[in-house]
């Protein structure tokens, strides 16, 4: 047992907690009673030093935790419960943040990085902002400190020993230093490259929401009620872009890994991230309104505060265990629910109290807004986003409501909607309509002087083109025999209008020599995302309908029998314009590109090792020779499916994966799709049912045959030719020793469409005989070499049969889903452009000049009017 690394890690957590406490108090004292930028230098030096110590301690914790995972130190519960001996390094990284403690640590780490950036680039605001940062760090580090104070456990340590966690197991009484040889492994669904990059992106987005919140709190504290907007806005833009990309990354992970056929299932944990992002984007518009038009400052304050409070609420939802029965991937309660509630309540009360006390001092615009003011439509757009967030928040919080009422002794049984997807989508669809329309209208109005005539001129073009495009879409949909409802027609019209209006604005600005508008690019991306969601979700088409007239199994659901195609191994079957052929099972072999046919591998007693039965070669390069021992990753079996277009003859191959895993929710088959991407659609394929590889095949009673070399034997519908007998090689994993005799038969089995080589083995060791059967899995035939009569030249074989190998497969066509992913990319680029424009050279040094806007003058040339209001 290596206790030192855990002791160093736990000491580092305690040091990080103490340093955060010192930093928070010192930053507070440095700024207390002093004007902004006039901090006490001695307290400021102490605060900076403490925060540097805090950062170094957090790095030490990360190194120690990754060490116990990477070095397979299973004496620690965290390594044992999340890792295993055979995980690749990239999935060990995923292990790091699979657990609650690791994900808290990732969040803490990003706060450290951002804190150092604030100390470097926002020196005037450093003391009050970092006081808030350090205070938040204090609470977060308490979640992983794992100490007992006055009989109350504070936090859950990632360095707890396995024997301390599983104290009831008798093995500890017999051997207190017992260490398991292997861990339980990483959740199979998380063994995906998106899980390596998605959580860091998402938690960076979480961490970035603290920055505008900290600036807002500092501004309220120091009564700098307007100056905070300029430094906070670039951080808010970065946060909006990163968190938005993180949300869509999670959607893409679900699309690529889960088999429900989509990318968003309105799971409460998904909602808990989506809600604060909507409010964050709304707050961003509030900040822009104040910086550019001197209006909406109170709204900006309220939404910035609400964003961070919703992040804390999302943390409480996903980590308190309250969603245990409502979400498929929430964390279980580690006894932190009380701490999480205190954490949320402290900063909520602090922010609301400061906001209320300064509310009347916050400047408001004296300008009256009318329909020709873009500020009005930007404000309406922000309101729509907040209403959409509230609808999701209200329904997602039903389990919290039930739990709270239970705590005060009132039993409630308010249930979540039976069809949550329909419930959420109904209102979110109309929110999407309004967002698309408003994004186009507001963007056009933002860059020009607005009168009735200019608005008509500016909006007529995109409106007419959107109407024309919608009409063509309706005709195409109906031409293809599909229906389109009125809400979908409206959403199509709104999405096309949003795309055309924003694209037109981008083109106009570039033509006038004005810098590219990040807002227009981001809005264009969001409109494309809406169209992609509409097309892919509304017109996803199942192309694997069962047209055989057969019922696969009475035990299967109606959907499985109706919407899936049965593929016998190496037998083609038609499916919606394609000819499909299932050609076998494959494994991942580290170091070998692609996948390796299972028939080329002889499995050993070690599940993670196999012996090559033939050369393993890819594109002319041989990676293993016959008889070599190689490593495999046996958790997933990949099923090779060949698609052939019946019209063009073009072919492609997909490898959907599946595993039988009783530890997953519901047990049984765990399948992940394979996706073929085309410019206009995706073919989305996943396995619905296979023969259970854990169960012994039900072989028929063996039928004995005595053959000579060259004889033919009939095997039900097939026949085999006994070609030769030769010395067996190590390829069968025989572990041959001196004095052993091993012979293998060479037999060719003739199937309907191809031939199969079968090599059963006969072994004599220590005057005892044995046999190692071989089988043609495609045909369900097994042959055993049972005996030799050298005097007569006769050989005895046993033949058994079983059910042929098959897969039951579901395939869907998802039209125009690339609009969703490309729209996400454009949205991120738009946020990036806005950051560059407002955070770098794009922000004018003179704050008054920063309030100006570029608009079209009467002659169409770009002019800079005086700030509105």
TrEMBL record:
Name used for this protein in its record: Cytochrome c biogenesis protein CcsA
A single GO BP: cytochrome complex assembly
Pfam families: Cytochrom_C_asm
GO CC list: membrane
Organism in which the protein naturally occurs: Hymenobacter cyanobacteriorum
PANTHER family, sorted: CYTOCHROME C ASSEMBLY PROTEIN-RELATED, CYTOCHROME C-TYPE BIOGENESIS PROTEIN CCMF
Key words of the record: Cytochrome c-type biogenesis, Membrane, Transmembrane, Transmembrane helix
UniProt record similarity statement: Belongs to the CcmF/CycK/Ccl1/NrfE/CcsA family.
Chain segments annotated as transmembrane: 6-28, 49-69, 104-122, 129-152, 202-221, 233-254, 274-290, 297-316, 336-356, 376-394, 429-447, 459-479, 485-509, 521-539
One of the record's GO molecular function terms: heme binding
Location of the Cytochrome c assembly protein domain: 101-320
């Amino acid at each position: 047992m290596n206790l030192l690394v855990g002791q160093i890690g736990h000491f580092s957590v305690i040091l990080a907690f103490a340093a955060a406490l010192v930093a928070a108090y010192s930053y507070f004292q440095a700024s207390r009673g002093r004007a902004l930028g006039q901090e006490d230098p001695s307290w400021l030096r102490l605060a900076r030093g403490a925060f540097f110590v805090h950062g170094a301690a957090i790095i030490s914790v990360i190194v120690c935790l990754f060490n116990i995972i990477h070095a397979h130190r299973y004496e620690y519960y965290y390594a044992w419960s999340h890792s295993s001996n055979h995980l690749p390094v990239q999935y060990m990284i995923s292990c790091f943040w699979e657990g609650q403690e690791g994900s808290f640590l990732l969040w803490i780490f990003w706060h450290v990085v951002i804190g150092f950036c604030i100390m470097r680039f926002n020196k005037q605001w450093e003391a009050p902002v970092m006081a808030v940062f350090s205070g938040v760090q204090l609470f977060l580090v308490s979640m992983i400190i794992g100490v007992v104070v006055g009989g109350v456990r504070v936090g859950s340590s990632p360095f707890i020993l396995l024997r301390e966690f599983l104290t009831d197991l008798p093995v500890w009484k017999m051997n207190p230093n017992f260490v398991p040889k292997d861990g339980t492994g990483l959740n199979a669904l998380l063994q995906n490259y998106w899980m390596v990059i998605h959580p860091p992106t998402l938690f960076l987005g979480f961490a970035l929401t603290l920055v505008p919140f900290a600036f807002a709190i500092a501004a309220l504290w120091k009564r700098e009620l307007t100056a905070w907007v300029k430094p906070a806005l670039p951080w808010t833009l970065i946060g909006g872009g990163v968190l938005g990309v993180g949300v869509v990354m999670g959607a893409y992970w679900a699309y690529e890994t889960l088999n429900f056929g989509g990318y968003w299932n309105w799971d409460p944990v998904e909602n808990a991230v989506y809600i604060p992002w909507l409010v964050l984007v709304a707050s961003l518009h509030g900040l822009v309104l104040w910086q550019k038009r001197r209006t909406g400052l109170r709204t900006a304050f309220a939404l910035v505060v609400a964003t961070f409070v919703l992040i804390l609420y999302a943390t409480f939802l996903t980590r308190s265990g309250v969603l245990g029965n409502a979400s498929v991937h929430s964390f279980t309660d580690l006894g932190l629910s009380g701490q999480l509630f205190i954490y949320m309540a402290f900063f909520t009360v602090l922010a609301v109290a400061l906001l209320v006390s300064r509310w009347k001092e916050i400047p408001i615009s004296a300008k009256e807004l009318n329909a020709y003011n873009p500020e009005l439509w930007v404000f309406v757009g922000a309101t729509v986003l907040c209403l959409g967030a509230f609808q999701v928040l209200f329904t997602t919080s039903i389990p919290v409501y039930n739990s709270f009422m239970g705590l005060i002794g009132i039993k409630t049984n308010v249930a979540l909607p039976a069809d949550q997807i329909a419930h959420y989508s109904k209102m979110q669809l109309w929110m999407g309509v309004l967002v698309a329309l408003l994004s186009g209208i507001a963007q056009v109005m933002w860059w020009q002087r607005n009168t009735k005539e200019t608005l008509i001129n500016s909006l007529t073009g995109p409106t007419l083109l959107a109407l024309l495009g919608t009409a063509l879409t309706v005709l195409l949909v109906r031409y293809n025999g599909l229906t389109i409802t009125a809400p979908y027609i409206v959403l199509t019209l709104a999405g096309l209008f949003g795309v055309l209006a924003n694209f037109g604005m981008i083109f106009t600005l570039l033509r006038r020599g004005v810098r590219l508008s990040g807002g227009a690019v981001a809005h264009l991306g969001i409109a494309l995302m809406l169209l992609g969601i509409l097309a892919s979700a509304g017109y996803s088409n199942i192309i694997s309908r069962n047209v055989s007239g057969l019922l696969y199994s009475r035990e299967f659901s109606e959907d499985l029998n109706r919407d899936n195609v049965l593929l016998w191994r190496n037998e083609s079957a038609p499916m919606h314009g394609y000819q499909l052929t299932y050609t076998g099972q494959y494994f991942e072999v580290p170091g070998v590109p692609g996948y390796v046919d299972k028939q080329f591998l002889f499995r050993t007693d070690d599940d993670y090792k196999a012996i090559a039965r033939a050369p393993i070669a890819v594109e002319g390069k041989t990676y293993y020779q016959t008889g070599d021992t190689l490593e495999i990753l046996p958790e997933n079996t990949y099923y090779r499916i060949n698609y052939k277009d019946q019209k063009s003859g073009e072919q492609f191959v997909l490898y959907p994966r599946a595993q039988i895993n009783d530890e997953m929710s519901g047990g049984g088959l765990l399948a992940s799709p394979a996706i073929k991407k085309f410019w206009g659609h995706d073919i989305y394929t996943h396995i619905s049912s296979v023969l259970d590889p854990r169960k012994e095949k039900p072989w028929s009673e063996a039928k004995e045959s005595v053959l000579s070399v060259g004889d033919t034997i009939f095997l039900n519908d097939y026949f085999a030719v006994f070609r030769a007998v030769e010395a067996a090689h190590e390829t069968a994993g025989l572990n041959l020793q001196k004095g052993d005799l091993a012979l293998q038969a060479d037999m060719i089995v003739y199937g309907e469409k191809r031939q199969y080589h079968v090599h059963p083995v006969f072994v004599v060791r220590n005057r005892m005989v044995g046999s190692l059967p071989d089988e043609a899995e495609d045909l369900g035939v097994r042959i055993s070499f049972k005996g030799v009569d050298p005097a007569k030249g006769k050989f005895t074989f046993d033949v058994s049969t079983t059910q042929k190998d098959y897969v039951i497969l579901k395939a869907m066509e998802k039209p125009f889903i690339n609009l969703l992913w490309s729209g996400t990319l454009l949205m991120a680029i738009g946020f990036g452009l806005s950051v560059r424009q407002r955070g770098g050279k794009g922000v004018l040094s003179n704050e008054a000049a920063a309030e100006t806007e570029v608009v079209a003058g009467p002659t169409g040339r770009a002019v800079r009017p005086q700030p509105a209001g």
